[in-house]
Amino acid sequence: IIQEREGEWTSNEMIEILGFRIPAFFVYGSQGPELLCDFITNFQTKPDDVFIVSYPKSGTTWVQEIVWQIYHDGEISHNVLGDRILYIEKALLPESTHLDIKSMPSPRLFKSHLSYDAIPKSTDEAKTTCKYIYVARNPKDAAVSSYKFMGSFGTNGMNAPWEFYAKLYIEGKTVYNKWSDHVLGWWKHRHDPNVLFLKYEDLQKLSSCHLESDLQSNVRMISKFLNKPLSEEVISLITEQCTFKGMMKNVQSFTLGDKIEGPKFLCKGVVGNWKEHFTPELNQRFEKEVLAKLKGSGLEFDFEL
Ligand code: A3P
Questions:
Q1: Is the CB of 43 under 6 A from ligand 1?
Q2: Ligand 1 centre distance from Cα of residue 264 (Å)
Q3: Separation of 202 CA from ligand 1 center, angstroms?
Q4: CA gap 61, 52 in Å, rounded
Q5: pTM score
Q6: Per-residue tens of pLDDT for the chain, all 305 residues
Q7: Which of 198, 186, 199, 244 is nearest to 225 (CA)?
Q8: Which of 61, 101, 163, 219 can pair with 265 through a Cys bridge, CB separation 3.0 to 4.6 Å?
Q9: Which residues contact 233 (CB under 8 A, 6 or more apart)?
């Protein structure tokens, strides 16, 4: 972690704000960490704001695209997703400042990886509060996905060996700290009327009744939660367009700044990829030091589908 230095930051470096490690390049240049802290702490939500939240690499892009299509009746946009839905922690970067937060049309859609405690909330006395959709993924797959993503930044990318990265991940020394604290912090609020808690594995699963995929029932559930009723035809269209295959047709939308050769938010899109990367020892450490923290919470994950 580096708190201060001159010049530009690389994607390897982290900085701490609001008790969280975030990539240092989110605040590089003239914008110091204090400015970002102030911005997040003083952010004024509107009742119809929607935040799509997760621990990194848990399916955020997937849910963002579903939400985008729900609000646009199944229409596909070829613009980069990051230009359509503002990542709140990156709001002060020059690349984001064209999105004028105050004049963004309602409902304003935001992406965030902040904890429940740190995320902007309504201070409105009438308690008309905005909505949060949280998506959680099993930490073994999220760790592998994170490692690959961090390594995909070209010369600025991370080049640590996987074993080393996995150890930092278990200890909560990668971005956004410990997976279990993040997920359990949001899980506690899963019954709040303005919180919808989803699981990546449920979006992937085939429904037990075989009449429709679980993605379809999740799309319907999200549209209900957002009070945006859609016809069954549009629900089916969105489901089709938001499968991994469907989203791959528009893959340039899910990159950082339209650069297809750079880091991508669509990679393998499967459950269980961790098995190709975990030794039995590493698996044991994940079970003991990460997953054991869920005990008694009622939160469980499918590790293979
Ligand atoms: P993998 O790296 O395991 O492939 P995030 O958006 O939070 O960064 O998460 C990215 C992960 O979600 C990547 O996982 C990506 O492939 C997966 N993903 C994105 N869209 C998906 C979809 N439609 N179906 C399945 N997985 C998807």
A1: no
A2: 9
A3: 13
A4: 9
A5: 0.94
A6: 666 666 666 667 888 899 999 988 888 655 678 889 999 999 999 999 999 999 999 999 999 999 999 999 999 999 999 999 999 999 988 777 767 788 888 999 999 999 999 999 987 655 668 999 999 999 999 999 999 998 887 777 778 899 999 999 999 999 999 999 999 999 999 999 999 999 999 999 876 666 677 999 999 999 999 999 999 999 999 999 999 999 999 999 999 876 777 788 999 999 999 999 999 999 999 999 999 999 999 999 988 77
A7: 198
A8: 61
A9: none
Residue 289 corresponds to which tokens in the numbers above? 């030091």
Cβ–ligand 1 contact at 93 (below 6 Å): no
Q: Are 44 and 125 in contact (CB under 8 A)?
A: no
| 58 CA distance to ligand 1 middle (Å) | 7
232/239 Cα distance (integer angstroms)? 10
Q: How many residues does the chain have?
A: 305
Contact 109, 71 (CB under 8 A): yes
Per the listing, tokens 């009723």 go with: 229
**DSSP per position, 140-174:** HHHHHHHHHHHTTSGGGS----HHHHHHHHHTT-S
- Say how many Å lie between the CA of residue 6 and the centre of ligand 1: 35
Determine contact, residues 26/20, Cβ cutoff 8 Å: no
Classify 43 as helix, strand or coil.
coil
Of 199, 131, 139, 211, which Cα lies nearest the Cα of 172? Answer: 139
Pairwise CA distance, residues 121 & 40, whole Å: 10
In the residue annotation, 191 being an active-site residue is answered as: no
Task: Give the pair of three-digit tokens for residue 51.
Answer: 């935040």
Residue of the CA atom closest to atom 8 of ligand 1:
57
- Look at ligand 1, atom 2, and give the residue with the nearest C-alpha: 145
Kindly provide the ipTM of the predicted complex, given to two decimals. Answer: 0.99
